[in-house]
Every structure is written in C-alpha cells, then in structure tokens.
Design brief:
Number of strands: 2
Number of helices: 11
Strand content: under 5%
Length: about 325
C-alpha cells in the first residue's frame, strides 16, 4: 500500500509540472541553443591548417603568458586560467604535440557543457517552487492530510526533482552528441590534454566528457537539495528562488576568493560542488581531496535532511 501511495504522489507531482509546461520550454530551449551552437561552429570561418613550424608561435604565446602571470592576483580565476595555459603550452612544446583545432562529436559535447547552467537555473528554481508554492498557496495542509507521512510527501517531491535532473541533463547530452555527430562526425582524436594540479595528463576524450557531466549532475543535485531545504524553512517562492540563484551563480567565485585568504573556507559547500576540479584543474585549497569533498557533501546532505524533517513536523505547518 505504501508504494502505491508513493507512486500516486509522484504522479501528482508530475501532473503539476506538466501542467505548467515549463519543462517543455526548457527542453526546447536547450535543443535550439545546441543546434545554434553547433551550426555556428560548423559554418564559421574554418581554422587555418597548423603549420609545420608551429613551435615559434606557441613559444611566443607562452612567453606572453609568463610575462603577464606576475601581474595577476593569486587565487583569482584569471590567475588559474593563465597558469593552466602555461603548463599546457610547456607540455606541448616539451613533447612536440601541436595544437589541435579539429572537431568531433565528443569534443562538441564537451564544448557545449556551458549550457548546463540553463539546466541548473531551471532545476534550482523548481526545487524552490515545488515546496514553497505549497506553503504559499496553503495546499500543503491537504497534502499532509493524505494517508502517508509528511516525510513521504517531501520524499516524493525530492524524487521528482531528481527525475527532472535526469530528464534535462540526459536530453541535453543526447541532443548535443547527436548534433556533434551529424555536423562533425566522430573521427577526431581520441585523447585530450588536461591540466590537473601542476601536471598535464592525457585523458580519453569520451571518458573525460562523461566524467565531467556525471560530476556536474552531482553538483547541481547538491545545490538543488540546498534550495529544497531553504524552501522548507523560508516558504516564499520569490525569496528562496532569489537567494538560491544568487548563490548558484556567485557562491563558487566567493568561496574561491575566501579560500585564498581563510583556510576554514574550504568547509563551505561551494568548495565541493564541482568535483571535476580533481580531474581537470585544481582544488580550492591545499590538503583537499575527493574523499574529503565527498565527506563534506555527505555532512551537508545529512544536515539538509534533518532540517527538512524538522520543518515538516512543525506544529504550524498544516495551518501555513
């Protein structure tokens, strides 16, 4: 009986989402933007073939970056990007690896990952709305009168957010890969150079791309959990959405600036939502590892679960 009621709750949540039709607008937007991005890359001015004497040009660019590096502030994004380029160019010159201007389906899928922020925007907004709207409209008291526990109602809402996450990201990846396959084929190089810490590592393009999306989904899911929890406490769609989106777009940058000056900032959640830093890039602070990040995220998720449990059993909830 419990599973049937849970299934009924999930069906009810899905009907609410379908009725709004925002999910279809988001998927259509991702589809159109992916096509536009692919067509732009396919029909822009073709890159000049790499000359046999490519080393002098790369050495000149390397010298320019090395001269610029002392002028940048350590810990800033520009400093990190500049340093990674220096390491990459040094590795290419040392191992006689020319720059690669070719395209392929996997490389397009990787380059199109910037559109993931749109998925995150929708999912975080829905995480706030799916809970806070029930409190604002007063319909939460009818949900809590159903013959299931209050926690089950919240679990159903959270499972629907997870389902939306899988739908949007899965759809986006499939469309991006197929677009790249049609426009560029899949005959490009199977390996790519990635800067990890102070080293340059050769990685398989397909593996690196799938890994990036997996950890990106995990990071978006954690931020959705934070917005979901905030909605249970504040219960205002506008306020929760504004706070969540502000943190979504600025939290990582602020945390990066703080970790450059305060070691304790490495315990902030935004220092761990992008686990790709352990496979391409560098950690926010010395001593951080993927095991440490997973532990910190687990603690935050347990804290979120405790807050949600406490909020739904408050005496004023049915009368909100």
């Amino acid at each position: 009986m419990g599973w049937k009621l849970m299934l009924a709750l999930l069906q009810g949540e899905w009907l609410k989402i379908r009725r709004q039709k925002v999910i279809y607008l988001v998927l259509s937007g991702l589809f159109v933007l992916t096509l536009v991005h692919g067509v732009f890359q396919a029909f822009q001015q073709p890159a000049d073939p790499i000359p046999e004497s490519w080393q002098p040009a790369l050495q000149s660019e390397l010298a320019r970056l090395q001269e610029k590096q002392p002028e940048l502030n350590p810990g800033t994004l520009m400093y990190e990007v500049n340093r990674d380029k220096i390491l990459l160019y040094q590795y290419q010159l040392e191992h006689q690896i020319p720059p690669d201007n070719s395209q392929s389906a996997w490389k397009f899928l990787s380059s199109n990952k910037m559109l993931l922020t749109l998925s995150g925007l929708y999912l975080i907004t829905m995480s706030a709305y799916i809970v806070a709207s029930e409190y604002q409209q007063g319909t939460v008291k009818f949900l809590f009168l159903k013959p299931v526990s209050r926690v089950s109602v919240m679990v159903a809402k959270w499972l629907m957010i997870c389902w939306l996450l899988l739908i949007t990201v899965g759809f986006f990846m499939i469309v991006s890969f197929l677009t790249g396959l049609v426009l560029f084929g899949n005959s490009g190089p199977a390996e790519t150079l990635v800067v990890v810490g102070d080293e340059v590592i050769v990685q398989n393009v397909a593996f690196a791309t799938l890994r990036y999306y997996f950890f990106s989904v995990l990071g978006i899911g954690v931020l959705c959990a934070g917005a979901f929890t905030l909605a249970c406490v504040i219960r205002s769609v506008a306020v929760v959405t504004a706070i969540s989106l502000f943190l979504y777009y600025s939290g990582e940058l602020v945390t990066r600036l703080l970790t450059a000056r305060f070691d304790i900032a490495k315990y902030l959640i935004f220092a761990h939502t992008d686990l790709n830093m352990y496979f391409e890039g560098r950690a926010f602070a010395e001593g951080m590892s993927i095991q440490f990040s997973l532990t910190v995220l687990s603690v935050y998720l347990l804290f979120f679960a405790a807050v949600v449990w406490r909020s739904v059993y408050r005496k004023d909830v049915p009368l909100s």
